[in-house]
# Entry
Amino acid sequence: MSNILHTPDPAALRLGTMLPEPFVVVERNEETADTFTLTLCPAGEGAARSFEPGQFNMLYAFGTGESAISISGSPEKTEGLVHTIRRVGTVTSALDRLVLGDVVGVRGPFGSPWPMNEARGRDLVFVSGGIGLAPLRPAILHALAHREDYGRIVILAGARSAPDVIYHEQLHSWMEESGVEVKLTVDQAGSGWHHHVGVVTTLIPRARFDSSNAIAMVCGPEIMMRFTAMELARAGLSDDQIFVTLERNMKCAVGICGHCQFGPGFICRDGPVFRFDRIRHWFSQREI
Ligand SMILES: Cc1cc2nc3c(=O)[nH]c(=O)nc-3n(C[C@H](O)[C@H](O)[C@H](O)COP(=O)(O)OP(=O)(O)OC[C@H]3O[C@@H](n4cnc5c(N)ncnc54)[C@H](O)[C@@H]3O)c2cc1C
# Structure
């Protein structure tokens, strides 16, 4: 399975040193009960960082440790790094305790991007589960900022329940954009929910896109991505039109330590964004 490997960009590796640089929390928003968004700016004379949609940073909560967190802001706006984080354990809980003015260490950006160039002139289908919308948001914002470069934009977002939907207001503002179709679904609907109910894959047959000329970008739990790839195939997309982003426990983020090994590759160096045909074999294996 040597085709899993793309050649890492040496410049990107040089940029991503092992030394975290200090960034200050300049904005904080609560997304859901366990998910929050931090905007970080370089402390002192530090330089702003540009990134490509799909890339991630290592965020270091001083005295606690580091976590890989995708960049979820607009790639057009480099003045602040935006990260949406779900509190699951030690490091993310420490990041959750940060308030305005606190300092966090940043290494990055790392990793492979969503295929925004390859997708030019084609319809874009974004499919997310839960916080999976966060790593997709830079790609959506890029496509909206370069509307003339892309065909229809379809955004299909699923969550467990209405209070678990992140970027709620922004999703509704995207619904107003011409040529953009946004469909939301939850597993369990409460009163006042006016969108769909059911798993996100059920939205795929209802969406309008040209499957012969579309690129799909998918992010969510692995089981969700597996069923989404199957449903996209039923809709007419081939595996080389589908891109997914993978997560594994990550330490160095520069392809040295091996914590995030996936088949013959490393997610930090060869991913996290993969074309589905290149990982299909490994994706279906347990414990990989
Ligand atoms: C490339 C990449 C991008 C990511 N982007 C985001 C993001 O944008 N927002 C976000 O909230 N999280 C993101 N994550 C996941 C995030 O890195 C982990 O949730 C975080 O490192 C957990 O650290 P912790 O110390 O809080 O939890 P721990 O105390 O280490 O673990 C708590 C629980 O979470 C599990 N866990 C730990 N790391 C992961 C992981 N990577 N995937 C699945 N389960 C894990 C552990 O097994 C354990 O059950 C990303 C991960 C990767 C690899």
